């Protein structure tokens, strides 16, 4: 039972990760490697922000399957889909 739960949690975490567009950096190819360019100036929370038509003034767990607090990095997540963990 514990093994099945562990496998499910790994799958669920990977599924959620692959569905979200994270904005902490951009990728570029350098030879055979992919390099992550971190751009902290674009990864600040923006408050208030709109998510699913609702306005949030603080980080939220709304829409987070694992209950992790997150925020939008633009005023309207519904349009831009940019987010980061709080």
From TrEMBL:
PROSITE patterns: FN2_1 (PS00023), FN2_2 (PS51092). The lineage of its organism: Eukaryota, Metazoa, Chordata, Craniata, Vertebrata. GO terms for molecular function: heparin binding. The keyword Secreted applies. Pfam families: fn2. This is Fibronectin type-II domain-containing protein. SUPFAM superfamilies: Kringle-like (SSF57440). Keywords: Disulfide bond, Fertilization, Repeat, Secreted, Signal. It comes from Equus caballus. Its main location: secreted. GO terms for biological process: single fertilization; sperm capacitation. One of its GO terms (cellular component) is extracellular region. Disulfide bonds join 45-71, 59-86. Residues 40-86 form the Fibronectin type-II domain. Belongs to the seminal plasma protein family.
